[in-house]
Write a structure and sequence with these properties.
alpha/beta, 20% strand
């Protein structure tokens, strides 16, 4: 009842924290405090997801590049700007192919240097085509808009007059576009959507983020569209004129690899723009700081034709997302705090929860951007972090005192042997250590978390102290040193500080005695806590650094090294084999060297978490039990040989026969079935541990 009341208070606290952090974050979102940073994440998403969309094949681009300018000077004597006869020739030739439109991203606001006839010839070509789109550019002078129109012959004969005025964000990046510009009561469509006017399409039905504004989805480069240069078109026009004059045959025209037939442009939306250095119209977009201006217009048309405009999630949904993440941030701490596990495991849960929150906060908006849905990242992420840190701070201040006191009290336990040596040699009271071969012991109570969750704390401490005392007495009596207690876990070692040549034997026998003593106490513990209590033990023998470690005023006599980590892994590895005591081959040989009357079952060639090389692990057994299970163990060894040879079907038939009688057989049976259903890509004959 007390536990439920306490948990209720924790959850109420979490709800309050989440609501306060949500409200604060939503306010920050509405005032646009992080708009600049959000735009950067938007640009990153645009660039990283651009590979998921494909350009419309009906859009083509013709550029006046440096190659075209050089060719025109050498072959025709045209200096820049070219006579507008060149544009007339391009329009005339392209129109032969019956394109849907020919849009010029160029301004003809001044009369031609080559005289009025030049403008009139261009206007005549426009009139004959009926597909040409010309542009205006609107300049804002104070509160007044001033539009620059093409000269009369060009303006009057254009099929549509379109607008090229950009819609830039505060950082001068074009993420959005106008679908029209309202100038003095008349709507001028954007150059990108003007081709739709020729087809009678109501382009104003585009999904606008705000009136008249759409959010663009860019290709990485305008090269994704069908690119041509003006030189090729003008050369093709010249050859076509020769064909009309009878100077060349149709076969010669068709076989000329340097020209493009007009039929290539049938039903295409064509854009023509400058691309030469010094003439290049560039702008900044989410995918490039140097992006052709005409690319904005082609993108607008592409997005309309394919319904691929970016759509912003409505604010109401954004608010809900912020609240959801804020609650998740608070719940991570609440969930971790409610678990009756060691401080280390609690920290791991918190770290995993925080990492998961980051992945969700960033991953979901990235995933949604692939189909073109824009969900903000920065503000919801800020809400999650604020809620997480606030809950963590409150937990540490309000709930952590008792846990820190218990953890500190347990850390003071030292072996009597260490105390005796400290009394005999006070010089040991300094930092330092040595390398020594030791035998290492890690143990943990199976399912202790579930026991502690449903047990009054005062009684839980009594049971835990009883258990730790019984196990500690056995370890100390065998000459072992208690390194530390971590909740219900016991960490110990032999052969330090006192030398013990038979430390491997001592460690194994102590483990067996601990299991035997716990079996004797099992009924008593079941009456106290309502569950049978089992412990898992991992043993390893190897070199480690031993000594006093810490500060000059607070230190512990402890051990460090890979051999220590391996012993820890073996304790947890018992779960994967259904065993309760496991040791390395090194420990078995160290024990056998000094004579020990035990049976040994080879369990596995296993690669534990954090180690690339496999180790051979054994299950030590009392001789009586070993002889009783000898038939099963012999069959187990045969099946294991088949298993590690990759013959999973053959091994399965043996393991299945004994699965009901033997836990390791059952675990191997499950693993065989897993590998038969999903064969490993590269079988190395090693059991790879899946957890610590």
């Amino acid at each position: 009842m007390k536990k439920q009341k306490k948990n209720g208070k924790i959850w109420i606290r979490s709800v309050i924290v989440a609501l306060v952090c949500s409200a604060l974050t939503i306010v920050l979102y509405k005032v646009g405090l992080f708009t600049t940073l959000e735009n950067k994440t938007y640009d990153t998403r645009m660039l990283s997801t651009s590979r998921f969309i494909h350009p419309d094949d009906n859009i083509a681009l013709i550029v006046i590049d440096q190659e075209s300018i050089d060719w025109a000077w050498q072959e025709k004597g045209w200096s820049w700007p070219w006579p507008r006869e060149s544009a007339a020739n391009i329009v005339e030739y392209l129109s032969l192919g019956n394109p849907k439109s020919i849009a010029f991203d160029m301004l003809y606001t001044e009369p031609s240097f080559y005289g009025p006839e030049d403008d009139e010839k261009y206007g005549e070509a426009e009139k004959n085509s009926g597909k040409v789109i010309q542009t205006i550019h609107v300049i804002q002078q104070g509160k007044t808009d001033i539009a620059k129109f093409p000269v009369a012959p060009i303006k009057d004969n254009a099929a549509v007059i379109a607008n090229v005025t950009s819609k830039k964000d505060d950082d001068d990046i074009i993420r959005r576009a106008r679908i029209y510009y309202n100038y003095r009561g008349e709507k001028y469509p954007s150059l990108g959507l003007a081709p739709l006017v020729l087809e009678g399409v109501d382009y104003t039905d585009a999904p606008c983020e705000e009136p008249g504004i759409v959010r663009l989805r860019y290709q990485t480069s305008t090269d994704s569209y069908n690119p041509y240069n003006a030189k090729t078109i003008l050369q093709s026009f010249d050859e076509w004129k020769k064909l009309q004059a009878g100077e060349i045959t149709q076969e010669e025209f068709d076989d000329n690899m340097e020209i493009i037939s007009p039929e290539y442009f049938e039903d295409l939306y064509i854009f023509l723009a400058l691309y030469a250095p010094g003439l290049f119209d560039i702008c900044s977009t989410p995918v490039s700081q140097v992006y052709p201006g005409v690319g904005v217009h082609m993108t607008t048309l592409d997005n309309y034709l394919n319904n691929s405009f970016v759509r912003k999630v409505p604010d109401l949904f954004v608010f809900g997302w912020i609240v959801l993440l804020a609650f998740f941030g608070a719940i991570v701490i609440t969930f971790s705090e409610g678990k009756s596990v060691s401080a280390k495991k609690t920290s791991v849960l918190i770290i995993i929860g925080f990492a998961l929150g980051l992945i969700i906060s960033i991953g979901v908006p990235y995933g949604l951007f692939i189909p073109g849905i824009w969900l903000p990242i920065i503000i919801p992420l800020l809400g999650f972090i604020l809620s997480f840190l606030s809950s963590l701070g409150l937990s540490y201040a309000l709930e952590g005192r008792q846990k820190r006191f218990i953890q500190s009290a347990f850390s003071q336990y030292l072996s009597p042997a260490v105390i005796e040596q400290l009394i005999a040699d006070p010089d040991m009271l300094k930092l330092g250590g040595e390398r020594r071969e030791i035998s290492i012991y890690f143990s943990d109570i199976q399912g202790f978390t579930s026991i502690s969750e449903n047990f009054p704390p005062e009684k839980l401490i009594g049971v835990l102290n009883k258990y730790l005392s019984e196990m500690t007495n056995i370890i100390l009596a065998s000459g072992g040193t208690i390194d530390k207690y971590e909740g219900d876990a016991i960490i110990a070692f032999w052969n330090a500080p006192l030398e013990e040549e038979d430390h491997g034997k001592r460690a194994v026998l102590a483990a067996m005695q601990c299991q035997k003593r716990l079996a004797e106490l099992r009924d008593e513990f079941e009456k106290l806590c309502g569950k049978k209590m089992y412990q898992r033990i991992g043993l390893n023998t190897g070199t480690a650094v031993i000594g006093n470690m810490g500060s000059e005023i607070r230190f512990d006599y402890t051990m460090l090294g890979d051999s220590v980590n391996l012993a820890s892994r073996l304790e947890g590895l018992n779960k994967q084999f259904g065993t309760y005591t496991m040791c390395t081959e090194a420990t078995m040989k160290a024990a056998q060297k000094y004579g020990v009357d035990l049976g040994w079952r080879k369990l596995a060639n296993v690669a534990v978490v954090g180690k690339k090389e496999a180790v051979v692990v054994y299950e030590p057994m009392e001789k009586e039990l070993y002889l009783k299970k000898r038939e099963i163990i012999d069959k187990f060894e045969v099946a294991c040989t088949l298993f590690y040879a990759g013959k999973f079907n053959l091994a399965l038939t043996i393991f299945e026969k004994y699965a009901d009688q033997d836990a390791p057989c059952k675990k191997y049976m499950e693993k065989c079935r897993e590998f038969i259903e999903n064969p490993p890509k590269e079988w190395k004959g090693v059991w790879e541990a899946t957890s610590k």
